[in-house]
Structures are given as C-alpha cells and as structure tokens.
What we know:
Elements: E1 9-14, E2 23-27, E3 36-43, E4 46-60, E5 63-71
Parallel strand pairs: 1-5
Antiparallel strand pairs: 1-2, 3-4, 4-5
Amino acid sequence: xxxxxxxxxxxxxxxxxxxxxxxxxxxxxxxxxxxxxxxxxxxxxxxxxxxxxxxxxxxxxxxxxxxxxxxxxxxxxxxxxxxxxx
Length: 86
C-alpha cells in the first residue's frame, strides 16, 4: 500500500464460500471498512451475487485487513446444473 492510499484502503480476505482464499483492496467508507459486501463472480460461466459479512479485523504491517465470511442464505446459488446447460 502506498503512502497516498494508507488510511483510505483495507484488504478484504474472503475466508470461505465461492471466493475462498481471494483478497481484494477496498476503499474505507467514512474511515471504516464495510460490515457487509456483495461480490459478483462467474461460477461455471454464470454470473452470481455472493454476500459476505465481516467477522474479524486486524492489522498486518500497518495495513488493515478484514476477514469476510460467506452468507449462503442471502447469496445466489453457487452450484452449476449441467442439465440446464444443453
């Protein structure tokens, strides 16, 4: 993170669900990380909306990191149905 973005960005870490293991730089809103994020992703060629909730935040070398957990109930289904792809 460069000096001009320090204090304006954080790193989101997706700990489970379809985006497990992904990291993304995101802007702080009002100086704080989001408590819930919606992420679009293509799974087997189908665009889906996945919701994640913040569960933990900590600093690593002066950089804010926020861990997000998948909310399956509010998200689009992530399973690909071969029968619908004829």
